[in-house]
Amino acid sequence: MNFIQTRGCDKNTPLSVTFSQAILSPIASFGGLYVPENLPDLGREFLNKHVNSSYKDLAFDLLNRFEIDIDSYVIKEALDLYDKFDNSENPVPVVKVKENLYISELYHGPTRAFKDMALQPFGVVLSSIAQKKGEHYLILAATSGDTGPAALETFKNRSNVQVACLYPDGGTSDVQRLQMVTEDAKNLKVIGINGVFDDAQNALKRLLASEEFKKALKEKNILLSAANSVNFGRIIFQIIYHIHSYLELVRQKAITMGEKVYLNVPSGNFGNALGAYYAWKMGLPVEKIIISSNENNVLTKLIKTGKYDLRDLHVVSTTSPAMDILKSSNIERVLYDMFGYKRTRELMQNLEEKNFYELTSDELAQLQESFDADFCTGDEGKVYIKKTFQKNGYLMDPHTATCMKSYETCSDPKIKTIAYSTAEWTKFSPVIANALTGEVDAQDIKALASISNEAKLEIPSMIKELFSKEIVQKTVIEKEDIEKEILKFL
Ligand SMILES: N[C@@H](CCOP(=O)(O)O)C(=O)O
C-alpha cells in the first residue's frame, strides 16, 4: 500500500510513497502528513478469526493487511518486543472497573506508558530499514513526558540511529524527567527547553521541513526522521490495541461479537484517538469515540463548536502534563479523511497563520457523528481517582481519570465503554497520593511509598531504580538554541 499527503502534493515530492519512505521522511508537502491511500477493510471475518489470537498474531495479520514494504522477519522481531511486557501472553489487559466500564491498560511496557505499545516495535522497524539502506538517521522526539522515555528506550544503542529528545523543562512529572535524564547511551541526547511542549513540537516540525538543517545533517552523512505520532510508523501500531481491546471484551463475554462500544481516549496529540478512528473505519463496531482532555481543552471545543481557536490561548500546567498540548498533530489526519486535501490545507494554513480555523456546520455535524468530547479539571480528576479507588478498588493515573468525567457526560450508560489507561500510577504519584490521602507536595519517592502501602501495589523495579541512577543528561537551553545544540551533539 502507498501513502499520500494530507495537504496535497507540491511538485517536489512524489504523489505517493511507500511505508518505509513515509516513516523515514514523515513530513509531506506543505507541512502535511502521510496517510494510507485507503484503509484495509477488515470485515467481521477478521474479528472472528482473531477472537482467540495472541496480541502478536493479531498484530502480524493486521500489519500484513496494510501490505507494507517491511520484511516479515523484521515485523516478527519488532512484535517480539511485546514479550518484554509484564505479561508476554497479553501485553494489554482489559479490566472491568464497574458496570459497562472497562479499562484497557496500555502501560505495561518498559516505560510504563502507552507510548511503548508503538515505539517498542517502531524502533526495530526504523533502525532495520536504516541498516538495510546503509543510512544513518537522526530521530527527533518532542515530548510532554511519555513519548520521550519510550523513544529513548527503544532506540538506545540501536545501530544507524541517534536520538535528540526535546522536553519542556519543568513541564513533566519527576519520574518522566528522571526516565529521560538518566538515559546513558552514546546515541541519545536529551534536551530540556525553557518553554512548553508546543515549543518543542514546533521546533521538531520546523527542523523536519528545513532544507538548511537537512543540508547541515547531510554534511555529516545523516538523514532526518521523527519518533512522534506525525510519523505514520507510530500510528500503524496504535490501531492494533483498539481491536485487541474489543476482542478482549468478546473473550470476557462482556459483549457479543458485533456489539458497538464507546472508545474513550485521553487525548493530547491525538495519535491514540486516531488509531481508534482508523480501527473503526476498518470495521471495528464502535458507537462513538469520546475524546477526554484536561484544562487544555482545545479538542473539546473543536468537537463541541467546530472552532480550533488558539488566539490568546496559553498552555496551562495541569496534573496530567502529558496532555498539556494545544497544537494537536493528528487532528489533521481526521480532517483529511473527512474533508479531503484542499480543505485540510486551507484549515491548517489558517491555524498556522491566524491561530484559528472554523468548520462549517455540515463539517461539524460530520465530525460529531464520530466524536464527542469533554474535559476534566485536575481537581475533578482527583475526586474520580479517590472515588474509583474506594468504590471499585481500581487505581488510575490522572490522564486516565479524565475519561471518568466524559464517561458520565458523553456516553449512554447502557452501552459498554472501553476507556484507555495511558500511564501507570507510578509516573504521577504526588497527584495520586494527594487524591487518596490528602498529602500535599510529597516528593515522588515518598508518594510512591505511601500509594504502594495504601493500595497494596508493588512499585516496579524500573521506577524504583530511577532514584539512585546518575543524572547524565544535563542540558537545558532556550528554545532558540535547539538547532545549534542538536548539531553540537552529532
Ligand atoms: N503526550 C505526548 C506528546 C507527544 O505525542 P506523540 O503522540 O506525538 O508522540 C508525550 O507524552 O510526549
UniProtKB/TrEMBL annotation:
EC number(s) on file? 4.2.3.1
Q: Name one GO biological process term.
A: threonine biosynthetic process
Q: Which SUPFAM superfamilies match?
A: Tryptophan synthase beta subunit-like PLP-dependent enzymes
Q: Which UniProt keywords apply?
A: Amino-acid biosynthesis, Lyase, Pyridoxal phosphate, Threonine biosynthesis
The protein's required cofactors:
pyridoxal 5'-phosphate
Report one GO cellular component: cytoplasm
| EC top class, as a word | lyase
Record field: catalytic activity? O-phospho-L-homoserine + H2O = L-threonine + phosphate
The text of the family note is: Belongs to the threonine synthase family.
Which NCBIfam families does the record associate with it?
Answer: thrC (TIGR00260)
Q: What name does this protein carry?
A: Threonine synthase
